[in-house]
Design a protein that fits this description.
Elements: H1 4-7, H2 18-27, H3 31-46, H4 49-73, E1 75-76, E2 79-80, H5 85-94, H6 103-113, H7 116-138
Antiparallel strand pairs: 1-2
Helix pairs in contact: 4-7
């Protein structure tokens, strides 16, 4: 970060009113003046093939794992989804009776309260980050 970015617009001792002080702050290499440079540099960095490969690997892995956890696991805000792993487990292990206070009942309760969504998102992000690190370590697209 350039040093003048931190103090460039704070020298308004000779400015008479608030409007001219604000104009001086915005025009004198303030954060708004260099923001265009940052976005251009970020776009150039992001368009490099190896960076794009890492970002795409992260997003694809994140979406796939999130869908697998959310749809196929079966603990959803509407209850146990039909045709999911949770439904198959419940029918095979418990039949018509699910014991209260057990792990399955707790996971169902957490899913119906919506607390499984942040858990699914976090697990997906960690797994996607691990895949992105593997892509980076292998030097894909370099």
């Amino acid at each position: 970060m350039p040093p003048d970015l931190l103090y460039a617009g704070f020298n308004y001792t000779h400015l008479p009113d608030y409007t001219s002080r604000a104009t001086h702050f915005l025009a004198d290499r303030s954060i708004f003046a260099v923001m265009g440079d940052w976005t251009h540099d970020f776009g150039a960095w992001l368009s490099q093939p190896h960076v794009l490969a890492i970002v795409m690997a992260w997003w694809i892995t994140f979406i796939v794992v999130l869908l697998l956890l959310s749809i196929f696991l079966g603990f959803n805000p509407v209850g146990i989804g039909g045709g999911t792993f949770a439904a198959a487990f419940q029918s095979c292990m418990y039949g018509g009776f699910t014991p209260a206070g057990g792990v399955f009942a707790t996971l169902t309760s957490l899913g119906m309260l919506g607390w499984m969504i942040p858990l699914h998102t976090g697990v997906s992000a960690v797994f996607a980050t691990a895949v992105a690190l593997v892509v980076w370590a292998c030097g894909v697209a370099r």
